[in-house]
Amino acid sequence: MKVNDRPVESLIPYVNNSRTHSDEQVVQIAASIKEFGWTNPILTDGENGVIAGHGRLLAARQLGYKTVPCIELSHLSEVQKKAYILADNKLAENAGWSMDILALELHGLNSGGFDLGLLGFSADELTEIMFEPNFEPGTEDDQGRLDKKTPVVCPKCSHEFTP
Fold it and tell me: What structural domains and CATH numbers belong to the chain?
C-alpha cells in the first residue's frame, strides 16, 4: 500500500455520498488535523474520485492545504467501491464505548492539561461522561447540576474542568 500526495483540487468527491458533514464537524476535523497531523489518508479510486475521507478533504480545503495524502484503491470494482463508501462509515458507527474506560482516559487527558475540546465530544457529553455517579463527585446534589459556565474540579484527578 503506497501513500501519495495529491493536489486537493484534483480530488473529486463522490456525487452520491450519503454521509454528511456539518460545518461544525469540519471545523473539528480541521482542529484534529492541526493538533495530530494528517493521520488518515484519503482513499481514492483510479480516477481521483474520493471513496473515503470526504470530511478530511473539506477540512484540508478549509485549512488551505494544497496537497493531501491519499491511498489509491483502483483494484475495487464499481460495485465494491460503492459498497465500501457505505461500509467505511457504517462499520465505524457500529462500535461502542466502554464508558468506564472512556471516563478514565478523559480524566487522564484532563490531568495532563490536554484540550478535551479537540476530541469531538460536546461539553455536555464530557460533563456527563466525566461526572456520572460512578465517579462520586462529593454529594448527590452535585451530580447533574453543574453550572456550565463555572469550572468544576474533577473528583478523581482533582484538576479543573470547564464544561
Answer: 3-93 (3.90.1530.10), 99-161 (no CATH)
